[in-house]
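Hey Z.,

So I finally got round to the glutathione thing we talked about over coffee. Here's the setup:
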Amino acid sequence: MITIHHLGVSQSDRIVWLMEELGLPYELKWYDRGDDFLAPAEYRALHPAGTAPVITDGDLVMAESTAIVEYISQRHGGGRLSVHPDDPDYPHYLYWMQFNNNLQSVLFIKIAVQSAGMEPTADNIMMTTTGRREEGIYRALEQRLGESEYLGGPRFSCADIMSMFNLTSLGMLGARAIDDSLPNTRAYVERVSARPAYQKAMAIAGPAASRPAG
Ligand SMILES: N[C@@H](CCC(=O)N[C@@H](CS)C(=O)NCC(=O)O)C(=O)O
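And the result:
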């Protein structure tokens, strides 16, 4: 059985969500962040990358959520939440599977530049580039959700599982609020949040959940 090593309040909640969508059994092992808000030593010892999520599946120890999600979908879920290479939406699926890392890399650069005390002025090339990229990402998101019900096509897929955390929980990294300025994205977030598997997963491992007793 797959064990999800869940770091309390982190994007490892998406693996719980995936398992609930697929109706697969799993064991949840909960870890709390340290006082520095980072993963504790016990968590970092699981995988050299030291980031959440990590899963174990028999002898396999795997990190990086994009890889984990596709691995579980294909190996344990019969590919039913993936988009097949023959599908016309396959290129979109691949693109939106990268949305998570795409947006987060921009936000991390923004935080680094800001914490170095640099001002967001027009002659600050890093701030200009980061701002332009961030705007482009949200523009692409609005455009995609204006033409397709889900990111990977007409069907809910792993691309949606990969993307929701960024739209609901990334305020702490300065992510843009999903408000009336992003109407297609806002409607999408409401639609996807209503899914029973999403609600169940968030109750188990989402931002408002806490370590189960015992
Ligand atoms: N691209 C990675 C990002 C992983 C990541 O940054 N995880 C955060 C949690 S949201 C983390 O491990 N933070 C704790 C730490 O860095 O100590 C993935 O999707 O798995």
